[in-house]
Amino acid sequence: MGLSDVLNYLSLAPGKDVLASRFPGAEDGGMGMVASVLGGNSEDLSIVLSVPASAAVMAQLELAPEAVTKFLAGAGNMPQGKRDVPAKLQVTITHDDKAQASNVVAVLRGSDPVLANEAIVYSAHMDHVGKRMDGDVFNGADDNASGSAGLLEIATAYAQGKEKPRRSIVLLSVSGEELGLWGSAYYANHPTWPIDKVVADINTDMIGRSGSESGPQQIAVTPSYSHDMYSTLVRDSVPLAAELGVTFTTGDRYYTRSDHYNFAKLGIPVIFFCSGEHEDDHQVTDHADKLDGEKMERIARLAFWTGWNAANSDDRPRVLGPRKDWR
Ligand SMILES: [Zn+2]
Fold first, then answer.
1. What is the DSSP letter of 112?
2. How far is the CA of 327 from the centre of ligand 1 (A)?
3. Cβ(132)–Cβ(8) below 8 Å
4. What are the chain's domains?
5. CA of 276 to the centre of ligand 1 (A)
6. Sign of CA dihedral 109, 199, 317, 248
7. How far apart are CA 236 and CA 120, in angstroms?
8. Residue 159 alpha carbon to ligand 1 centre in Å
9. What is the DSSP string of 25-52?
10. What separation in Å is there between the alpha carbon of 91 and the centre of ligand 1?
């Protein structure tokens, strides 16, 4: 990974603590991480230095570059350099007040005169991290063209189905996810459907890869059975998954990481499908040819049926709290 990747990511997500662990021992850009590691608190200003500049700073701080590289690679402690070294910093800030991001929302009215006032939301983010500083494009095939394609297929299935679900369906394509779940936060605060009548959110983000974290017949799901927000929505999805030959793994480490979280924070039952992190995350190598199309289809079908059942059930989904297993 080069410094340009690091700069690109940092410029989008300034000060995210996760950067220190997400970018261990970056070969040619490794030294460039120092400033952001030191300023790892999201309240701090993060500054990424070029390799020569960071080498100069480390020399002033009497830090051994090898020790810092070791720390960045996850081995060894953060080396302690000299403190209270006077420094002068000149920063030019450019503010772009024309920047804008949009959500796209579609609604399919339910067939039941009473239950149609309630809605199941399907969400997926359409944005990714743009272009790298050298001009190379972050295609984001898995993150999140895969979930967006799933959302479109789900919309098509509802639109073409002869039978309409009893509850209404809100199809929500959000933007700004990579900047901090902006689109779903905006929707949760400015809902186009009465938010107390939103009974569930089904979120798909990165459903296209079969890898170390989830194989072709697996998917990571949160909130899992051991989570406080485990709900009938998730529980009732398990047998549907079984019919499609899919088993669930625990995806609770992604609980706050995608758009479902803005619904979960309001107490709304959610389910998040994610095949998990991989080596091409937020890299220009997140290409379509690495996607497992059959898995994507399986997970999109699972998301569809999970929402379909919730939309047709007499009772709205409810939070169960932690359980011993998925039942
Ligand atoms: Zn994503």
1. S
2. 28
3. yes
4. 3-72 (no CATH), 104-312 (3.40.630.10)
5. 10
6. positive
7. 15
8. 26
9. T-TTTGGGGHHHHHT-STTSPP-PPPHH
10. 31
Pairing label, strands 198-204, 119-125: parallel
pTM for the whole structure: 0.78
Question: Ligand 1 centre and the CA of 258: distance in Å?
Answer: 7
User: Could you tell me the distance, in angstroms and rounded to a whole number, from the CA of residue 96 to the centre of ligand 1?
Assistant: 24
CA 70 to ligand 1 centroid distance, Å: 29
State the distance from the centre of ligand 1 to the C-alpha of 177, rounded, in angstroms: 7
CA of 4 to the centre of ligand 1 (A): 20
Spacing, Cα 128 to ligand 1 middle (Å): 7
Burial 78-96 (b: 16+ CB within 10 A, else e): ebebeeeeeeeeeeeeeee
Alpha helix ranges (H) inside 169-288:
182-189, 232-235, 237-243, 260-264
> 200: CA distance to ligand 1 center in Å?
20
CA 223/CA 252 separation, integer angstroms = 6
Residue 150 CA to ligand 1 center (angstroms) comes to 13
pLDDT tens for the 327 residues of the chain, in order: 444 455 555 555 443 333 333 333 333 334 344 344 444 444 445 555 656 677 788 888 898 888 877 877 778 888 888 888 888 877 776 666 776 789 999 999 999 999 999 999 999 999 988 776 566 788 999 999 999 999 999 999 999 999 999 999 999 999 989 878 989 999 999 999 999 999 999 999 999 999 877 899 999 999 999 999 999 999 999 999 999 999 999 999 999 999 999 999 999 999 999 999 998 888 889 999 999 999 999 999 999 999 999 999 999 999 999 999 999
Closest CA to 291 of 122, 131, 137, 139: 139
3-state DSSP call for residue 166?
A: coil
Per-residue burial over 221-253, b = 16 or more CB atoms within 10 Å of its CB, e = otherwise: bbbbbebebbbbbbbbbbebbeeeebebbebbe
